[in-house]
């Protein structure tokens, strides 16, 4: 009976793994259709000046509503897109929609704030990134100060020389770049100092635990580091007024989070621009 129980346990785990693999296959298959059939939309989350509570800009976040799978989180589909050669396409669909949005507001003479797009490290390091990016922005007649790049640092992909080259090229053209999810996964602080990022985004997990004395010290150190390196610093995932107050007191310039706004559809974001 022992052996029998053991078999039950084994097949239970096997079934779970099969399910996971099937889910990934379903996502990959639907992704191919979804990219062609306009199933992706952009949500915008406001970036708030913590001193004045004014809107400084937005971050663009991909949303995918599949007729087959329903709403799929980017946490799930971005990784699958990265592993299957689809991520450049995902990033560029979102980038195009953001450029179109900016272009329409420009045409109508409406207020415009910078919008940051997320670029996967897989895409960022691919040979076509800078040229594709620049030609898309130019195609929509958007000036570089109205579009920003966020790159999540990845230890596996980290290539200091190449990162510096790409960031310098963007900087020379007038684009600002942010290092996203800072604190989780960055290998060396000495690299940060030499990479021409204009902004550090402190990972949400740090803000979540900011009441903890050690974490408080860590966040304070990052804010000071950013200031010393003359980089802009953004706290991600602010959910409470206490977190807001602590970060404001530390001198953190900008914040994002559900406390201010959740990511929202373009039409809703437009209501914040007047
Ligand atoms: P991220 O770039 O760090 O974006 C912030 C994530 O935190 C978003 O999740 C946002 O909805 C969420 N968030 C914002 N404020 C709060 C808060 O106060 N509390 C909590 N619990 N969460 C908050 P989302 O939209 O699910 O995106 C997850 C990740 O997927 C993003 O993390 C980004 O790495 C990636 N992603 C999203 N869109 C794109 C895209 O177009 N291209 C690429 N390459 N990655 C994308
Ligand atoms: Mg981001
Ligand atoms: Mg990220
Ligand atoms: Mg982030």
UniProtKB/TrEMBL annotation:
Record GO terms (molecular function): cyclic-guanylate-specific phosphodiesterase activity
Source organism, top-level taxon: Bacteria
Signal peptide: none
Residue stretches making up the EAL domain: 24-274
The name this protein goes by in its record: Phosphodiesterase
Originating species: Lysinibacillus halotolerans
């Amino acid at each position: 009976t022992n052996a029998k129980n053991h078999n039950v346990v084994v097949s239970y785990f096997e079934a779970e793994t099969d399910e996971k693999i099937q889910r990934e296959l379903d996502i990959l298959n639907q992704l191919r259709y979804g990219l062609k059939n306009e199933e992706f939309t952009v949500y915008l989350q406001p970036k708030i000046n913590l001193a004045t509570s004014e809107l400084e800009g937005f971050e663009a976040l991909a949303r995918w509503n599949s007729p087959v799978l329903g709403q799929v989180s980017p946490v799930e589909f971005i990784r699958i897109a990265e592993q299957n050669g689809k991520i450049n396409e995902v990033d560029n669909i979102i980038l195009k929609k953001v450029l179109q949005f900016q272009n329409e507001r420009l045409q109508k003479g409406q207020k415009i704030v910078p919008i940051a797009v997320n670029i996967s490290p897989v895409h960022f390091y691919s040979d076509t990134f800078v040229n594709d990016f620049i030609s898309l922005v130019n195609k929509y007649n958007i000036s570089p100060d109205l579009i920003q790049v966020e790159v999540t640092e990845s230890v596996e992909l980290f290539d200091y020389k190449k990162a510096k080259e790409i960031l310098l090229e963007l900087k020379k053209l007038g684009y600002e770049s942010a290092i996203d999810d800072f604190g989780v996964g960055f290998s060396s602080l000495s690299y940060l100092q030499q990479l021409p990022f204009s902004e550090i985004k402190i990972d949400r997990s740090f803000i979540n635990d900011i009441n903890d004395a050690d974490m408080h010290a860590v966040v304070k150190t990052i804010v000071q580091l950013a200031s010393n390196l003359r980089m802009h610093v953004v706290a991600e995932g602010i959910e409470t007024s206490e977190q807001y107050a602590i970060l404001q007191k530390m001198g953190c310039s900008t914040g994002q989070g559900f406390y201010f706004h959740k990511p929202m559809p373009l039409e809703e974001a437009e209501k914040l621009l007047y």
